[in-house]
Amino acid sequence: MPTPTQWAAARARQTLFTTLRRAFVAMGYLEVETPCLIPTPGLEPHIDPFEVPFVPQTDVGTRRTLALQTSPEYAMKRLLADPGCPPLFQLCKTFRNGEVSGHHNPEFTMLEFYRPHADYTAIMADLERVLSAGEQAVAPHRALFSKTPWERLTVRDAMLRHAELDLRVLTDGPSLKRAADARGIYTGTSTGFDDVFFHVFLERVERRLGQERPTFLIEYPASMASLSRLKPSDPSVAERVELYVQGVELANGFSELTDAVEQRRRLVEEQALRRSLGRPVYPLDERFLEAVGRMPPSGGIAVGLDRVLMLMLEHTQIADVLLFPAKDFV
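Request: output the structure for the sequence above.
Response:
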């Protein structure tokens, strides 16, 4: 049975979701629903979807394996590609196989929203506005998300501040590894830039972010662009943002990539990386790729609302804000 803490969190969740919906509608956003059951999952190298067998009971469809969405991103971008599409948001369930920890649940609630004809700076401003309003409704005494304006910190400045490593000089894996090793930072055995970077980031940087007020970590190295465009004035970095509060990652967003050829190239690379890691490799979502080439310049972000609620209510475990946490049955 749920604990009193979990019941209190359920009431706070209702207040938070109601406040978020009102704030987005006031800003001209349209709430949409996209399918949880999808034919083609994403290709993020370190995320595994739940695979679901589809067994037709009529003469419609063929037996095949579908997946539960790890994010509504592909579907929402197909909507963005439609001429005249307004700003979009949705609150939805998303699913990631095997993720159970103090800050992870395999089924969780995501806020995802997109603004056409905008970039990630506009998305950051919108997120700051709605989560500040949400905290004032749920926990006005907390004064964490409402400490505006939130910090905007580049990845380069964060690495220099917290790890004393200058990515403007340390531009390749071997040089970054040598400098990190000299500072006593464990970097593993790989000399790949991204591998070394993440060892340093997790050991020295992440937990220090967003301690006094929320921090938008921006301008990731171009190799970590994911689905974002490169910064026009500095193509060595991507217009990608992650939100951190008290060392916890809450959101990941972009100035969206609208080059279908480049998007295909990146997804093929992710297929190869998944293959090298021994993870299932899924086909490309051709409907998504076709839509990317028709999208207007846009900004978008995905936010883990269970973690947001956890921090607003001053809990340390995500299970405290869920009525049926997976840790109780896995």
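The two ends are 16 Å apart (CA to CA).
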